[in-house]
Hints:
The complex is a heterodimer of chains A (212) and B (715). With 212 residues, chain A is mainly alpha-helical. Chain A has a domain at 71-209: Cytochrome c oxidase, subunit III, four-helix bundle (Four Helix Bundle (Hemerythrin (Met), subunit A)), CATH 1.20.120. Helix content of chain A is 75%, strand content 1%. With 715 residues, chain B is an all-alpha fold. The N and C termini of chain B lie far apart (68 Å). Chain B has a two-stranded antiparallel sheet. Classes of the chains: A mainly alpha (212), B mainly alpha (715). Strand 1 of chain A pairs antiparallel with strand 1 of chain B. Chain B: Keywords: Cell membrane, Copper, Electron transport, Heme, Iron, Membrane, Metal-binding, Plasmid, Respiratory chain, Transmembrane, Transmembrane helix, Transport. Chain B: GO terms for molecular function: cytochrome bo3 ubiquinol oxidase activity; cytochrome-c oxidase activity; heme binding; metal ion binding. Chain B: The chain crosses the membrane at residues 27-47, 68-85, 122-146, 158-181, 208-232, 252-274, 297-317, 329-350, 370-390, 402-423, 435-458, 470-492, 512-536, 607-624, 630-648. Chain B: It holds the Pfam family COX1.
Amino acid sequence: MSATTTQKIDPKGVTLWERHYPGPDLISTRTFGFWLYMLTDAMVYAALFASLGVLSHVVNLAGGPPPAAIIDPVYAYGETITLFLSVLAYGYSMVALKSGSRGGVIGAMLVSMLLGVVFLGIAATDIGHLFSRGIIPETSGFLSIFFTILIYHALHILVGIVWMLVMIAQIARDGFTANVVYRLINLRLFWHFQAVIWVFVFTFVYLQGMVA
Amino acid sequence: MLVHLQGPWTPLLGRLTLQQIPYQNPILLGTFIFVAILGVIILVATTRYGKWGYVWREWLTTVDHKKIGIMYCLVGLVMLFRGFIDALMIRTQQAIAVGPKSPGFLGAVHGYLTPFHVGQIFTAHGLIMIVFAATPLLVGIMNIIVPLQIGARDMAYPYLNALGLWLTTAGAALVMLSLFIGNFAHGGWYGFVPYFELPYSPGVGVDYWLWAFQLSVLGTTLGSINLIATIVKMRAPGMTWMRMPIFTWASLSANLIALTSFPVLMVALALLGMDRYLGTHFYTAGMGGNLMLYNDLFWVWGHPEVYFLILPAFGMMSEIIPTFSEKTLFGYATMVIASFAIGGVSWGVWLHHFFTMAAAPSVNSFYSVSTMLVGIPTGVKVFNWIFTMYRGRVRYELPMMWALLALFLLLVGGMTGMMNAFASSDYMWHNGVFVVAHFHMMVLLIAASVFGAVEYWFPKVFGFKLEQKWGKWFFWFMVLGTGWVFVPMFILGIAGMTRRLDYIPYTQWAPYLHVMLVGMAFYVVAVGFFVAHLYVSLRDREKNRVGADAWGTTRNLEWMTHSPVPAYNFAFIPHVNARDEWAWRKEHGLAELHAGDYEDIHMPKNTGVPLFLGIFSMGLAFALVWRIWWLALLCLALIVALIIIRSFDRDTDTTIPAQEVDRVERAARDGVTENGPASDLLGDPVVATSSIRSESGGMGGKSSAAQPAWAPMDR
């Protein structure tokens, strides 16, 4: 703005107030905030992976088993397949949302949820197997961060499963209201985000651990 | 999996026993009696005047961003007072405990505080001042002002906003609780590992520190999501990025820092917690732990954090200085770029916190240079403020005085910061009081900006100005205290005094420590004037009522709506035509034009859920501190259940009917016209000295004060 503009402006020629202003769109505002939340969670994972990088040094094994000795790629492979199928099922639920089919959304979400449960089952088997061999987080600095990353990711899956249960109940009760739809979209972001993070877990924890 | 603890533990109360209540310490006993009496007075008064319903409906359950902001500021103010008392105790202890012949009182060998007690005090002072005083004050002001500046009716997520407040309050309450039950951490506010590990600090102090910190981190992260989304999504039509007020820009860059750095702290603290509770080995001295990992993770947050604090302070200065120079801000675009440059560089400087920890010279050089780089955008800002004042009509009202003090402190703190940035000289005074004096210059800059901002925006939020006389006494005693405390501290730092001392072996330092004590006396007097300032302002509030444009030369959207601001902020959302929209309207004679014919306004409904989430979080933290597992599980289950139940609530909105809006708007106008001094402001919003006043005289100069020239206009 130039400071010299003191000429009179015709009040009828300018808009001073917004009539019937609807405000920002609810769904896009909520979704934007959820992207920001995911950025914070990505920073948490970044810090955890950085810690893994630091604590993977041979000093941090403290006489405990090295990564290559404890990693069983079969479990991780099974988890990968299950999680990606679950994300695919969630994608179908979003397709059903576009056509407005309550049954379709709930059905596909149930499949997605069950696959999430299977994922948790495999993860629990993997971790339980290690625990039964006496390989626990308290053994060494490396194992502390190893289990922390796996369990933190599994906790997210658990939250997603509970969230899906809640959404199924809300779809059944309310149908596709704005509140339900924005939550479904945010849950989609959340669920895909877990799969993306799993790619990093698979790469940094499993693959890198095996070649280390 | 849980770590086996030494000492008594019961399933019902965990580690909590009667011996944990320090009634034998006269200082804590006195504090407890003071707090208890204060609490009883407040409770009795609230009951007596039948205000519980009011407090519940209007404050505890509110989702109004202005009220949440006010409560944030109140929390910050209470904790500022607490942190100040801590500072007073550190300074008096150090002034007494000099040399082997110094006397001892209250069971201490030197001074009146035992080393363990001093440790708790400086740890609490650091944590409180940064996390529970400065942060809530700044977040509170951002909370109030940012939605008003961008022409929004509320924050993007009002419910989340309240949750952020109550989580922060829960953290602050936990710190206060540690005074009377158990003890607090005693090894510095940023937690030395492995000293903070269970074998070396087996008490509950570190756990209090850990969970209070963690709660506030959670609250601030949620708040930053909210503020960023508000600024990006909720701006009024016509407000392009380059028309955004500079305080909003500063808030945006500060909250981007918070959004990206606070989660890292969350990890740093969570891993330490796992070490203490589950026996993992992230930072332990043996068993594969790495203590530098903690330092790195902590300062990856810790250094960006100081810019998170200082950028809003810069934003406040950038609002105050143009208003009281009666000019537009010089170099708007460079100001925006500088804010983001500071935010960006903040990520590349954390390692300068451990120049002396045997990093390679190349690493030290990198961090040395990047630290100095911060000076460039900061320098740009300083020159912009100076050029704003140059050939302006500078009015030395209280907000401006505080802003100028902040500018001066920025110069002193910035220059000494450059001295610290040289890794070579940093070897001499690392962990010394020179560094302490430097960062106190910087945080006092923040405090000065906050006091200025409170003076500046107070009439907007409460509808009356703070009186000036006692405020000026407060200001000058703050200046005196700052000089007398921190100039000797710089000298002592160069002389080699290290920080966190409970006993000073060198008697030749005594004169400086006594001079600093004089400075503390000035600060105490300043606190007295501050209370008088508030009291007199409240008493004379009817005399000091103001209209919308309290200072006459304000420039942004927030000054277009009434003071105090109605619940819905703007009866109609303003359309933004220019940067400094309000100044533009005044300049072109459009200031008196109001839109009539009001419409219903949709607003979020009050809810008690965030308050209860805060209470349960505090219960969870308290249970974890004392390892009362059943209570922790119960609180966790309640939190999860409450979040789920709330998501099923369909009745979250309310509508303010058009008649109500009309009534409030009329009352606000009439209320102003009935009052003497303020009526001038409505009829003639720009005072005669203003350079902005346009020749057209279009802002109602001809209309009489009793009959404001506002007409329903449909534009």
